[in-house]
Every structure is written in structure tokens, then in C-alpha cells.
Amino acid sequence: MRLLLALAAFAYLGIMAYMYLQQRSLQYFPGRAGTPPEAAGLPGVSEERVKTPDGETIVLWHAEAKPGMPTILFFHGNGGEISDRAERMAFYRSQGFGALFVSYRGYGASSGTISEQGFITDGLSAYAFLRDRGVPPEKIAVVGESLGTGVAVQLAAQRPVGAVALEAPFAAAVEIAAGIYWWLPVRLLMKDQFRSRDHIAGVTAPLLVQHGDNDGVVPVEQGRRLFELATAAKELVIHPGAGHDVIDSPEVWARELAFFRDRLKVQ
Question: What is the residue range of 178's domain?
Fold first, then answer.
């Protein structure tokens, strides 16, 4: 019996060590094609390469706004790359909005190694790019989808922006992981925990949260909880019967643009 218990403990520790070492391959699924915007069907969108303070080079897709219109600073989720969101950028542009899509380090043609802190640095670098181009804070509208909501929340808590829209957000990514891997001490092992709940009170810009009530990836309770913790002027839209694919819905995108028009006082 003691031998069996010792073998079981050894196996458990081995699995725990493996999960710790491989965790980012279970959390992130980057595309690395690095497709340029024109090849993705977006003529007129420039591909910019920006140096981050820690020496990486990230790729940004930039389209200028029509006069008087806001620019959307967009943070994508954990899978694919910005070229997979070409339809979204085309939609924003068709409505007169500018857009800056961020290719995180380790994604697309951006250099570097994936990490939460790295993503935040990338977000701050993208924000600085817009400010250097003369876009005022009140004309920057931040959008995050899924994992990108964790970046959006921390960016908006650290920098002044005009408004924020979150699609399928979480209170903390570590809470979701702990539910999936209930048999592991996830809260001790997880490197990139994206605790949006710890930052949301720092977001003072108007906030829109959208979530599907049948989301099997980020449970709607996570979005509701984050919304409850927010202290800014806020609005919650729950899409009945929708899953995590709300992030791919033009209806959801249109709702956030209407929110931006209203809160940023644009036509």
C-alpha cells in the first residue's frame, strides 16, 4: 500500500511539473503566418512595426479614422492572429472608425515570447503609437475579445481612454483554469492569471460588457462578476442562446460602435 501511495504521489508530482512547464502551450494558440493586411483583403491598412520598451518588435495594423471619429484599439483572443480578424477591421472602417489591431509578441510576425506582462507591454506600446500619431485619449476606444479583455482592462486602468467594450470577458483567467484543472493547485502554478477583477476598478471610462449566456469557454457568470466589480458608467448586454462565438458576431460589433457613438458624442 505504501508503495502504491508513493507511486501515485510521484506520478501526481510528475504531472504537475509537466503542466507547469507546458502551461502556456495549453493557454495560447498563436497563428504565426504574419499575413500582411493587403493580402488579407484590407487595402489602405498600413502594417507598422513598433519597438517595445523591452526590445521586442510587434506588428500593428493601422487604419486612420475619418475626421472627428474615434480609433478602436483592438486586442484579440488567445487563438490565431490579427489576419483572422480582417472582417472585423473592415467592419470598423466601413463605419468611419479608425482601428489599430495589435499582434502580440509571439503571434503573427511579432517577435518575442508569449506572457501576460509582455502582452500588457505590447498594449501600452500600441497606445503610445496612437498618441504619437496625434490621437487624443478621448478618441481612443478600447475593444477586447475573450483573452484580449484581460489586456484591455489593464490598459484602460493605466491609461486614459474614451470608452471600453469587452466581449466575453472574465473576472480572472485563473478562475476558469482552476475549474477545468480542479485536481491541480492552479492558483499556485499558473503564470499568466489575468486577474481583471483586480484592475477593473481603475477603469474610469464608460464600459460595455457583452456576453453569450451559453458560453462554454468563458462562462457568463465571469462576465457578470466583472461587470459588477466595475465602478465606471457601465452597460451589460447578455445575448440569449449565444456561445463564445459572440466575439465573431457583426451584431455584437455594431452594438459596441453604437455605444461608442453615444458615449463619445460622435455622429
Answer: 2-263
Query: What is the distance between the alpha carbons of residues 101 and 86, in angstroms, rounded to a whole number?
Result: 10
pLDDT 10s digits, 174-222: 999 999 999 999 999 999 999 999 999 999 999 999 999 999 999 999 9
CATH at 83: 3.40.50.1820
CA distances for 114 relative to 16, 35, 257, angstroms = 21, 19, 30
Q: What are phi and psi of 163, to 5 degrees?
A: -165, 165
> Are 156 and 146 within 8 A, CB to CB?
no
The structural domain count of the chain equals 1
Q: Residue 213 corresponds to which cell in the numbers above?
A: 449566456
pTM metric for this prediction: 0.96
Sheet holding 57-63, edge to edge: 46-51, 57-63, 98-103, 71-75, 140-145, 163-167, 207-212, 234-239
